[in-house]
Design a protein that fits this description.
Helix content is about 35%, strand content about 20%. The chain starts with 5 loop residues before the first helix and ends with a helix. Strand 1 and strand 2 (about 35) form a beta hairpin. It has helices at about 5-20, 40-45, 50, 55-60, 65-80, 135-145, and strands at about 25-30, 35, 85, 110-120, 125-135. By secondary structure, it is α+β, with helices and mostly antiparallel strands. It has one domain: Beta-Lactamase (2-Layer Sandwich). A five-stranded antiparallel beta sheet has the order 2-1-5-4-3. It comes from Aliivibrio wodanis.
């Protein structure tokens, strides 16, 4: 492979995928400090990764109810199970602009968010990653039929 070690090439692929996947990816530690902020989140939130890395989620997004989100996160850290925030319960976790304002009449992006445990090599859960999915089209279609 052109003299480049396979492990390095695979690492490069992973970084490229994380930055360019059409899903928001965020890594939080147990203190809710941000350790990863991918390109989707930069594009949709308008917040650059260098401005959020190492900061508390609640400082960057003060509109998130800390007590509620910590309760949502408890099963992730304590039991190693996933937790979910679906748009029907709460339209969004992160107030992001709707990137298709002409074709979709919504001032914000509806989201489904999955909170996933991240295990260390020893099996301990010290972090979680959030997968943020834009479900604006589906939400607006469902709301139009109500």
């Amino acid at each position: 492979m052109n003299g480049i070690p396979a492990e390095f090439e695979q690492f490069h692929w992973m970084v490229d995928m994380v930055q360019n996947v059409d899903v928001g990816l965020i890594v939080l530690d147990k203190d809710f400090n941000i350790h990863l902020w991918n390109g989707f989140m930069t594009h949709h939130s308008g917040k650059q990764s260098h401005d959020v890395m190492g900061k508390s989620l609640f400082d960057v997004f003060p509109e998130i109810d800390g007590a509620w989100f910590k309760a949502k996160s408890k099963p992730v850290f304590d039991l190693g199970t996933r937790s979910f925030v679906i748009w029907r319960q709460r339209p969004y976790l992160f107030r992001c602009r709707n990137v298709r304002p002409i074709t979709q009449q919504s001032e914000f992006m509806y989201q489904n968010v999955t909170l996933n445990p991240m295990r260390s090599t020893t099996g301990e859960i010290k972090s979680m990653f959030l997968a943020v999915e834009d479900v604006t089209s589906e939400a607006l279609a469902e709301l139009a039929n109500i």
